[in-house]
UniProtKB/TrEMBL annotation:
Stretches assigned to the PAC domain: 106-159
Any GO molecular function: DNA binding
Annotated GO biological process: regulation of DNA-templated transcription
Organism: Adhaeribacter aerolatus
Domain of life per record: Bacteria
InterPro entries, A to Z: PAS (IPR000014), PAS-assoc_C (IPR000700), PAS-like_dom_sf (IPR035965), PAS_fold_3 (IPR013655), Sig_transdc_resp-reg_C-effctor (IPR016032), Tscrpt_reg_LuxR_C (IPR000792), WH-like_DNA-bd_sf (IPR036388)
Residue span, HTH luxR-type domain: 175-240
SMART domains referenced in this protein's UniProt entry, alphabetically: HTH_LUXR
UniProt name for this protein: Helix-turn-helix transcriptional regulator
CDD domains referenced in this protein's UniProt entry, alphabetically: LuxR_C_like (cd06170)
Gene3D superfamilies tied to this protein: PAS domain, Winged helix-like DNA-binding domain superfamily/Winged helix DNA-binding domain
Amino acid sequence: MLNQPYGQVQISYENYIRENPTLVNILNNGPCVTWILDMRTLQFSFLSNNVKDILGYDNKNFEEQGLAYFNQIVHPDDVAPTWQLVMKKWECLMALPPYQRTAEKMNISYRIIQPNGNIMQVLEQSSVLQLDDRGHVTHVMGVCSDISLLEKLENKIAANGPVAEKIMAGKVPADPVNQVILSKRELQIVKLIAAGYKSRDIAQELFISFHTVNTHRQKIIEKTNSKNTSELIQYVMTQKLIDFE
């Protein structure tokens, strides 16, 4: 990843983050750790400051050591399998034509050991955020969530009989997940929310009523199955429903 010659990039995410404090505030107070990794240096261009609240570690360690710090907190039994899976997924990603790479999503689950000795199961979801003019991946964006309680629940379900075992084994097909489709107006509103606009500001910007804005906001929250604005912004960014331009 570091040995290839990189070309020009369109967006400097370090500058983008500095210029959008409202968006940063939303991500900092979200339910997941949100990060943007510069693949050219393996350092974080952005890391939400809720790392300690969610994972138990200080942001400073990640900011100073970059991606390498994960090796120190991942459960020893999970380090090798996790990196093998990451490299396999990366090879598959790079085998795709450049124009298809930004559409790929990667989900990986592993355990970390918290400073207090507790073991936490986390789910890391990431996608390509930017390519350079040569098609090389320069930035990846991801979120990291604590799924320890979900893991325990699944273990209980698996122990509750043959039907549950079939579900856990994947022999009973799950219901298909409907793709979230936002209207043109809803996307306009989401972009303005991400830029820090309040409902009254959005109403003035789009020449619609305050009530109409709030109605759209409620529908957007319901469509994306988000609990609040923070989750909404994280969802639309990871799903690439909005851009950074």
